[in-house]
Amino acid sequence: MNAPKIIVIGGGPAGFMAAITAAEAGAAVTLFEKSREFLRKVKISGGGRCNVTHACFDAREFATRYPRGEREMIGPLQRFGAAETVAWFAARGVALKTEPDGRIFPVSDSSQTIIDCLVGTARAAGVKLVANHAVSTLPGDCNRVVLATGGGDCELAAACGHHIEPPVPSLFSFKVAAPWLRALAGVSVDPVEVTAVGRREVGPLLVTHEGVSGPAILRLSAWGAQVMHDLDYRFPLLVNWLPGRPLDCDRLRRDHGAKLVVNTPLLPARLWERLVDAPALRWSQISRAEQHRLEQRLTRCELPVTGKSLNKEEFVTCGGARLREVNFQTMESRLRPGLFFAGEVLDIDGLTGGFNFQAAWTTGWLAGQPR
Ligand SMILES: Cc1cc2nc3c(=O)[nH]c(=O)nc-3n(C[C@H](O)[C@H](O)[C@H](O)COP(=O)(O)OP(=O)(O)OC[C@H]3O[C@@H](n4cnc5c(N)ncnc54)[C@H](O)[C@@H]3O)c2cc1C
Predict the structure, then answer these.
(1) Rounded to an integer, what distance in angstroms lies between the CA atom of residue 91 and that of residue 94?
(2) Mean of per-residue pLDDT scores for the chain
(3) What's the gap in Å between 143 CA and the centre of ligand 1?
(4) What domains lie within the chain, and their CATH numbers?
(5) Which residues pair with 307 in a beta bridge?
(6) pLDDT value at position 245?
(7) Which residues form the pocket of ligand 1, taking CB atoms under 6 Å from any ligand atom?
(8) What is the pLDDT of residues 303-345, one digit of tens each?
């Protein structure tokens, strides 16, 4: 019997995983990449270190990190999740390590290790790798086509009759029109509670030259991606700088009565100075009204968001091929037999921390399975 012929469109992580899986199972696989270089995003990912996946080994819990795709990803992650990804790379000579926050990187701390592994493994499995070749129509002379064209590149999927949720950025930082805050660039606070567009997140926040970033903000941007886009990235951001730590003025008055409020920081000193904004005030002198004002500034600090800026470590597009038109047992189109999907071309996107690559490994692996 002739080997099944499979064409993979897109030379990113999802396309490579699909191509390798199919070729190792005996298929004749050709992978087309429109640009000169394979795996471009892997190269720049995770600040050049490539955050391959996340140390969360329960599929249901892992799936909660996908603002779009949570329900659909549970089954696929049970078959090929973070543990299988770590084992897959280990079997091909790449050792991975887990950082204290759960992010998993190659021990080499270099994304080139992942690229070398994927390209080397694909070649060894007999995948024909073709760069500089944009596929503009769906090839007919094969048993299976895997669409792995990434986020924002949905033309082929649309041409096959698939509905496309409009692509919108996710995982971005906020620009804030508050000069006093920008003057504090570099200050980080952990944890803060941030609320915007009806969503609340708790975690670390970093003040940047343009506004605010850090895990809490990136998570908020992922969950609110669509609404924030519709608001043209202009909305109020409410910050509680002291979540779960109410300002106990009675105790502070008792313990530090003679001290200046500004000299008893409960937050990084520069930020505290700005928020207190009363250089001569002592705890013993603080009136009820002043106490209330201070509490408001510390726990309900409203920042006007006026735009978004790219997060350099990781960003992603939400939107893409509509999920209910794809069978997540196989990744095959429900509209067009023989057409398979993998990676960010689908309307799936994850939080920062390795969840986006895991979606690529998981769906690529499924799309490449022998039938
Ligand atoms: C700066 C940055 C850092 C990131 N860091 C991380 C990280 O550390 N961890 C993480 O989990 N995620 C990270 N991400 C997200 C991650 O890179 C993506 O989710 C992932 O690359 C998606 O994989 P993919 O294969 O679906 O798509 P892509 O990586 O986008 O690959 C798709 C490929 O298809 C090609 N293509 C498109 N159309 C055609 C066509 N018609 N014919 C031929 N080829 C075509 C494109 O040129 C592209 O090379 C990062 C993203 C960015 C931008």
Answers:
(1) 7
(2) 95
(3) 25
(4) 5-169+314-367 (3.50.50.60), 172-310 (no CATH)
(5) 175
(6) 86
(7) 9-15, 32-35, 40-41, 44-46, 50-51, 134-135, 148-150, 153, 156, 314-316, 343-344, 354-357, 360
(8) 999 999 987 777 899 999 999 999 999 999 999 999 999 999 9
